[in-house]
Every structure is written in C-alpha cells, then in structure tokens.
C-alpha cells in the first residue's frame, strides 16, 4: 500500500516511529485502557486520509513546582541528556519533537514552564491552546504533589474544559524504591483519578548502557541496573510516546468528524443528481479536503 502513496515529509528518527498503540503506566490511573488505535484512525492512516494532521503540531504544556524536574524530563526526551546542576527556567522555553505515528508525520511542541512564583505570570500566558497538560511533581516531596491541583487549575483556566488530555507525572523515581515508592505512587494515583489524569512515574537521571557499558572490545551484557531502572531516562520515552499517540489519535478523530459533518448529505440540495446525469461529476463537488491531490 505504502509504495505507491506519496511520502509525507522527511523521515523521523527510528525511535520516534510509533506503530502500535503505546501502553499506559498503570491501569489504575490511565486515560484509555485499549491497546490498539481506533479502527477509523487505523483505516484513515493506511489510506493516508488524515487530512492536514500530518502538518499539525500539538501543543503540550508542562507545569509544576520549581525544582521538580520539568526541564530535566524534557531534555532527557528531546536531547537525551541529564544535567545534575539546577538552572531555573526563566519564563518559558519549548522544544519541537517530530514523530511518525501509524505512518503519518506528527509533531509535539513541548512547552517547558518556570515553577518559580516570580515567573508564573509570564509562563501562564503560554497555557492557552494546549492539547495536553502535564502536571509534574517530585516523588520525594509530597508538597509538590499537593500543589499539582493548583497548577492544573491554572492551566485549565486558559483552555476549554474537556479539551485537554491531563497527565500527572512523578519525577526522580531513581531516588525512591520499595515501600516508599509504592506509598508515593499510591497517593499520586489517587489524585490522578480525582484530576481525571493519567499517572506516570519517571526518572530523567537513570543512565543507560552508554554510561555503564564496559570497553568496546568486551562483550556487553545488559547492565544490572537496567533490571531495576530500564534504559536511560526510565519511562521517559514510553511516556512521551503515549502522549503523542493519544494526542494524534484525538486529532485524527476530530478531523474525520469535522470532514464528515461538512460532507453534503443526500437530500441536502434541491435535486438528487443521478450518476452520469450531468457533465459535472460528483467528484468535482467534493470539498477540497477530500481530493486526492
Ligand atoms: N535524581 C534525580 N534528580 C533529578 C531528576 N530530574 C531532575 N533532577 C534534578 O532536580 C533539579 C531540578 O531539575 P529541573 O529540571 O531544573 O527542575 P524544573 O522543574 O525545571 O525547575 P524550574 O525550571 O525552576 O521550574 C536538578 O538539579 C536536576 O538535576 C531525576 O529524575 N532524578
Ligand atoms: Mg525548568
């Protein structure tokens, strides 16, 4: 099927290609339990009938207290780096990440906002038009979890109710283990349900094979730390893939619905034109978005 269809833009890096629907972190606090793309979305993607979605950039805003690790989370995903030194974000910053989802190009514009009170009014000016709101807190600091309610309220004030996907993200997972981690996650899952958010625990710090692998001549085995921490930036890539897939699917469905509602219905006009009854074909009457080129 793909071979005779025109490619939509330059290819993206391999680790930004999403072919199967990414899974939730915990079924106890997730936005959708399903494991596949919506049937209509899969069909539209196969036929490349996704309208302008391939050109669309969805806005994601990341909010939360200062020092919780918002910038670190974004930098781990977009640049695969981790900086131990704290440099407060002043106002806002953003990164654009390109994906290919079910064969269709798709981009996220990820807005990193300042957690410091003195920058709050600058940052809040950028909340509008978000398709995804990520509220971040530090798993080792319960105060920051309490504050996520307020951050979310502020972000929602600038957006239409019910129009955004909400995520609650516990950061610095590497600093907690065992019962302490379970306790922190249980509290967060409870709050996520209250907020109608999906919950994820992540670490921007965990290093992968690049830092842990022995010299190039020796046979490299999966480092022991991977067993508990996984690859670099535990859950970071999985989390953003989930964000991208949910936002993408919603965009395609909205686009299909919009196009369906603007299609002429039988009986809409004065006459029902029979096929071949006029020199003007039905195709020439279709809205431009349904054309093949
Ligand atoms: N151990 C550990 N430290 C982290 C992690 N993520 C961030 N940090 C550290 O936490 C500190 C704050 O991180 P930032 O990402 O700058 O925090 P921020 O939320 O962007 O802060 P503001 O920009 O002031 O709102 C830095 O010293 C980071 O190195 C993590 O996953 N694990
Ligand atoms: Mg920051």
TrEMBL record:
It comes from the Eukaryota. This is Ras-related protein Rab-36 isoform X2. The lineage of its organism: Eukaryota, Metazoa, Chordata, Craniata, Vertebrata.
């Amino acid at each position: 099927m793909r071979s005779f269809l025109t490619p939509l833009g330059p290819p993206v890096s391999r680790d930004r290609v999403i072919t199967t629907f990414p899974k939730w972190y915990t079924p106890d606090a997730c936005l959708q339990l399903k494991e596949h793309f919506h049937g209509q979305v899969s069909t539209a993607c196969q036929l490349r009938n996704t309208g302008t979605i391939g050109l669309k950039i969805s806005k994601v805003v990341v909010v939360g207290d200062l020092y919780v690790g918002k910038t670190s989370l974004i930098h781990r995903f977009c640049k695969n780096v981790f900086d131990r030194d704290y440099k407060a974000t002043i106002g806002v910053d953003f990164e654009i990440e390109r994906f290919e989802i079910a064969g269709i190009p798709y981009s996220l514009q990820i807005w990193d906002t300042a957690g410091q009170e003195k920058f709050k009014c600058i940052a809040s000016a950028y909340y509008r038009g978000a398709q995804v709101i990520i509220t971040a807190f530090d798993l080792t600091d319960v105060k920051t979890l309490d504050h996520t309610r307020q951050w979310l309220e502020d972000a929602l004030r600038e957006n239409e109710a019910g129009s955004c996907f909400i995520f609650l993200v516990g950061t610095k997972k590497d600093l907690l283990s065992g019962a302490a981690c379970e306790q922190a996650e249980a509290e967060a899952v409870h709050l996520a349900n209250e907020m109608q958010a999906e919950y994820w625990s992540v670490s921007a710090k965990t290093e992968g094979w690049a830092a842990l692998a022995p010299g190039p001549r020796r046979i490299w085995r999966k480092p022991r730390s991977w067993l508990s921490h996984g690859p670099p930036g535990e859950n970071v890539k999985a989390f953003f893939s989930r964000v991208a897939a949910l936002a993408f699917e919603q965009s395609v469905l909205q686009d299909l619905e919009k196009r369906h509602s603007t299609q002429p219905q039988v009986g809409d006009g004065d006459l029902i034109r029979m096929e071949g009854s006029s020199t003007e074909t039905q195709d020439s009457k279709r809205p431009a978005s349904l054309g093949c080129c």
